[in-house]
């Protein structure tokens, strides 16, 4: 099992607040790694560091890119994390381009391929054959993912007008159009009904097993995390408190304490006991 | 009736120029949410570049008018885009991520700087050029009044319409346009999908400046005079046009420009010519009070 991403001694401080405190973890290639922890544990901050949105205070994020070799994500600006390192994320609160059609949303994600083909927009401006070919290829790729995620009939709708669950799937489809080596999903099951989250499970497993995409998954819905993750890492107060297989994590005393020890975390507690029962 | 028709032609010409400048305001606002108050002065700079280019051509004894116009347009677009790029790079980009007010102040500073730079290097006096294109077509002749459309006016209207079609196509159909719209809707997300946001913003500024350059060349040809202060008034009127149409909306900027041009022409013809600026700014006040999102702009809904 080779390591795709290794996070070493990562810390992120905002003034006096330490959101991530000396966190180290490994994300294996071609597997699903779940990240769980109570609200405010630093999960989303980790994603923000990964995708160049925050510059970590200390620590390294080393990506072993299958084609391009070793890359340090903490040194790349956001657009190069997607373009060169092919690490892409989705958001807890969906961030589609609401006024564009679904298809356009997916084409924007492939814009680097198009940009190269368009030679700094010039060939694109005049629609030269090379560019038209690239554009057709982009549409085909978009269509393939739309088909796989059962979104084809929405292709020409404005993304902002569609129902929530559909928008979630579109966001995942768009991320896939970047051709990611690492896909970071921030609570993809939030707001989905049980049937939809079962479909999500299936999709995640398909991406990982069939397409070989490594997935880093932040999720509160235990029915998703516990069922699809190969490996789970539990964070609390910016520190890793446990990791291992879903089974091992469920029974870890530190984890139980982190979830059950806090009064305001009722939701998480319920979810957790449910998961233990199942 | 004939008189009104003539005013319509004059208004359209004026409106075309305001529209071209207004697009620059609206695009920059769309992508970084800031009013580029130096945009009017970029337009002024382009008029000076045009004058310089015309002078050079005259010195080189070029007499073919189409050739001369093409050359001047290309030179003006090239150098003005460079100005647009430089202004963004030096005055706005370093302030990105700071408060909303900072780039606004910086823009006003840039505007004063450009005016003074041109005043120092080109002199404060009005610079004239001899008429480039003369004559026109008589459309309709009554005993009292002859309606005429000048070749220059025709050129301005036709060029503007062609540019606006090309521009709309570019924004809706090309890779750059898609990128531009993506940045406009969510800059952070666009970056996370690999779009180089800084470059897109630079390009937006250059594009706005290029359109202003076309307007600058036209003003030079149409009026035959420029001075270092023309950017202020033209800029504010184009800004009014952008607000009237709905700031951030491209068709809005075009429509707003046209309306402001027409209103100004008719006001000057039928009411008081000396108060035509009052009309424009009265409209700005009214729009801001009654319909702040403009004619084609969508009101911003704060999501809770």
TrEMBL record, chain A:
It holds the Pfam family ABC_tran. One of its GO terms (biological process) is D-alanine transmembrane transport. Keywords: Amino-acid transport, ATP-binding, Cell membrane, Membrane, Nucleotide-binding, Transport. It comes from the Bacteria. One of its GO terms (molecular function) is ATP hydrolysis activity. GO terms for cellular component: plasma membrane. InterPro entries: AAA+_ATPase, ABC_AA/LPS_Transport, ABC_transporter-like_ATP-bd, BCA_ABC_TP_C, P-loop_NTPase. Residues 5-262 form the ABC transporter domain. Belongs to the ABC transporter superfamily. This is ABC transporter ATP-binding protein. It comes from Pseudothauera lacus. The lineage of its organism: Bacteria, Pseudomonadati, Pseudomonadota, Betaproteobacteria, Rhodocyclales.
Automatic annotation (TrEMBL), chain B:
Its main location: membrane. It is found in: Cell membrane. The keyword Lyase does not apply. It comes from the Bacteria. CDD domains: TM_PBP1_LivH_like. GO terms for biological process: D-alanine transmembrane transport; L-alanine transport; L-isoleucine import across plasma membrane. It holds the Pfam family BPD_transp_2. The chain crosses the membrane at residues 12-35, 42-59, 65-87, 99-118, 149-171, 203-223. Keywords: Amino-acid transport, Cell inner membrane, Cell membrane, Membrane, Transmembrane, Transmembrane helix, Transport. GO terms for molecular function: L-isoleucine transmembrane transporter activity; L-leucine transmembrane transporter activity; L-phenylalanine transmembrane transporter activity; L-valine transmembrane transporter activity. GO terms for cellular component: plasma membrane. It is a multi-pass membrane protein. Belongs to the binding-protein-dependent transport system permease family. LivHM subfamily. This is Branched-chain amino acid ABC transporter permease LivH. It comes from Pseudothauera lacus.
């Amino acid at each position: 099992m080779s390591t795709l991403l290794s996070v070493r001694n990562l810390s992120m401080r905002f003034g006096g607040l330490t959101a991530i405190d000396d966190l180290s973890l490994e994300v294996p290639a071609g597997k699903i790694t779940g990240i769980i922890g109570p609200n405010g544990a630093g999960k989303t901050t980790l994603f923000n560091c990964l995708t160049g949105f925050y510059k970590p205070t200390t620590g390294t994020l080393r990506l072993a890119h299958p084609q391009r070799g070793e890359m340090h994500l903490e040194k790349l600006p956001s657009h190069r994390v997607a373009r060169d390192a092919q690490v892409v994320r989705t958001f807890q609160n969906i961030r589609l381009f609401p006024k564009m059609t679904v298809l356009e949303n997916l084409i924007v994600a492939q814009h680097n391929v198009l940009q190269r083909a368009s030679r700094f927009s010039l060939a694109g401006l005049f629609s030269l054959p090379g560019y038209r070919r690239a554009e057709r290829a982009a549409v085909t790729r978009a269509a393939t993912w739309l088909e796989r995620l059962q979104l084809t009939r929405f292709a020409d709708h404005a993304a902002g007008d569609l129902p929530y669950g559909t928008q979630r799937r579109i966001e995942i489809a768009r991320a896939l159009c970047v051709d990611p080596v690492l896909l970071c999903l921030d609570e993809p099951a939030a707001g989905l009904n049980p049937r939809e989250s079962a479909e999500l499970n299936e999709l995640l497993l398909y991406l990982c097993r069939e397409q070989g995409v490594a997935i880093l998954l932040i999720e509160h819905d235990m029915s998703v995390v516990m069922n699809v993750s190969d490996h789970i890492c539990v964070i609390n107060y910016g520190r890793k408190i446990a990791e291992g297989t879903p089974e091992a994590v469920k029974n870890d005393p530190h984890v139980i304490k982190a979830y059950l020890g806090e009064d305001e975390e009722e939701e998480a507690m319920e979810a957790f006991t449910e998961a233990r029962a199942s | 009736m004939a008189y009104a028709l003539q005013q319509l032609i004059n208004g359209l010409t004026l409106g075309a120029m305001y529209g071209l400048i207004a697009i620059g305001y609206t695009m920059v606002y769309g992508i970084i949410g800031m009013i580029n108050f130096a945009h009017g002065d970029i337009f002024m700079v382009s008029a000076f570049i045009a004058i310089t280019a015309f002078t050079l051509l005259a010195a080189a004894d070029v007499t073919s008018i189409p050739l001369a116009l093409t050359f001047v347009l290309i030179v003006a677009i090239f150098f003005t885009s460079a100005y647009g790029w430089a202004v963004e790079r030096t005055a706005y980009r370093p302030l990105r991520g700071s408060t909303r007010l900072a780039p606004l102040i910086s823009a006003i500073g840039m505007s004063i700087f450009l005016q003074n730079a041109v005043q120092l290097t080109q002199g404060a006096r009005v610079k004239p050029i001899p008429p480039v294109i003369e004559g026109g077509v008589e459309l309709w002749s009554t005993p009292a009044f002859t309606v005429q459309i000048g070749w220059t006016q025709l050129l301005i209207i036709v060029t503007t319409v062609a540019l606006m079609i090309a521009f709309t196509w570019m924004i809706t159909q090309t890779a750059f346009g898609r990128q531009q719209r993506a940045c406009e809707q969510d800059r952070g997300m666009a970056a996370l999908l690999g779009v180089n946001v800084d470059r897109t913003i630079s390009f937006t500024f250059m594009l706005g400046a290029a359109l202003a350059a076309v307007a600058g060349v036209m003003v030079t040809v149409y009026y035959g005079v420029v001075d270092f202060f023309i950017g202020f008034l033209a800029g504010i009127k184009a800004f009014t046009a952008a607000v009237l149409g709905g700031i951030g909306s491209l068709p809005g900027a075009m429509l707003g420009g046209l309306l402001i041009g027409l209103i100004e022409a008719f006001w000057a013809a039928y009411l008081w010519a000396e108060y035509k600026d009052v009309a424009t700014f009265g409209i700005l006040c009214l729009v801001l009070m009654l319909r702040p999102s403009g004619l084609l702009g969508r009101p911003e809904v704060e999501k809770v």
